[in-house]
Amino acid sequence: MSHHYLHFNSVSFTYPDGTKALSEVSFEMHHGERIGLIGANGAGKSTLLQLLAGFLVAQSGSIDLGGLKITPSTIAEVRRTLGFVFQDADDQLFMPTVFEDVAFGPANLGVEEPELTPLVMNTLNRTGIAHLAHRPPYHLSGGQKRAAAIATVLASTPSMLVLDEPANALDPMARRRIIEQLRGFTHSQLIASHDLDLVLDLCHRVVVLHEGKVAAVAPPMTVFKNKELLEHCGLLPPLRMQELPPEGPQLKVVEGHHHEAALHHHTAEK
């Protein structure tokens, strides 16, 4: 078996206030696989990601990452293997330039010149933002920040990517670019997202969480065609699979100064 795999085995976690966030969660992700993690708010997605990142510790069960059990004593090694892309790109971009942000991880892992600069530039090229190398992160658009955040993770050569809402707040073109980039990576990817169209575009399988339990593990179309399952879990199908509303009145497109004249005429009639 490839060492690029993830296995949740009967993982449970309860917060100090008694909230049971995860209960007996089990699923596997294999080498090169992209899995979508979906569920309504409060389903347990954030807790699962925090367990993976080592911010929380499973109270029962185990998480196996490529043969390495995730525990407080192994978390430093886990974080060298697992590339985590946060929901807010600003949480990962803190250096004066994009180049320095991307160089930060490998430099701290011991990569030095003359290897460091080619590694950084290759990573920036892979994510399509080499032209932004010397740009301050705070001058970037949302899509550019997201690509830069992904580049900071890829530069440390992880075995697996975990992405929290990778298309959050992106415009349609930036969203499409991120989807194409993720599709081009050979890494195993766990993608937590409310964007079910993105999950349908990218993922080989879907893990559905509901009230802290695994409600289903299946290919995206199998999940999204199951209306009873979606309703039970408080989800709707991807937009492209939803029925269109009845066609309304046709809008007449008026261009240039003609639009102004038509608007003036319409107002005058009132």
Secondary-structure map:
Elements: E1 6-14, E2 20-29, E3 34-38, H1 45-53, E4 60-65, E5 68-69, H2 75-81, E6 82-85, H3 98-108, H4 116-126, H5 142-154, E7 160-164, H6 172-184, E8 188-192, H7 196-202, E9 205-210, E10 213-218, H8 220-224, H9 227-232, H10 256-269
Helix pairs in contact: 3-4, 3-5, 4-5, 5-6
Task: Summarize, please.
The chain contains ten helices and ten strands. The chain has helices spanning 45-53, 75-81, 98-108, 116-126, 142-154, 172-184, 196-202, 220-224, 227-232, 256-269; strands spanning 6-14, 20-29, 34-38, 60-65, 68-69, 82-85, 160-164, 188-192, 205-210, 213-218. The chain has a six-stranded mixed sheet, with helices on both faces.
Word description of this protein:
It is built from 10 helices and 10 strands. The protein is α/β, with parallel strands linked by helices and 270 residues long. The strands form 2 sheets. Strands 6-7-8-3-9-10 form a 6-stranded mixed sheet, sandwiched between helices. Strands 2-1-4-5 form a 4-stranded antiparallel sheet, covered by helices on one side.
- Tell me the strand order in the biggest sheet: 6-7-8-3-9-10
Q: Give the overall pLDDT as a whole number.
A: 89
Task: Give the N-to-C terminal Cα separation.
Answer: 74 Å
**Strand percent estimate:** 15-25%
Q: CATH superfamily name?
A: P-loop containing nucleotide triphosphate hydrolases
Q: In the CATH hierarchy, what is the class?
A: Alpha Beta
Biggest sheet layout: 6 strands, mixed
CATH architecture: 3-Layer(aba) Sandwich
Compressed to H and E, one letter per element, the order equals: EEEHEEHEHHHEHEHEEHHH
Radius of gyration: 22 Å
Which overall shape is indicated by the principal axes computed on the Cα atoms? globular
Number of domains: 1
Contiguous runs where pLDDT drops below 50 for at least 5 residues:
257-270
**Roughly what percent helix?**
25-40%
- Determine the structural class based on helices, strands and strand pairing: alpha/beta
CATH-defined topology = Rossmann fold
Q: Total number of β-strand segments?
A: 10
SS field, number of helical segments: 10
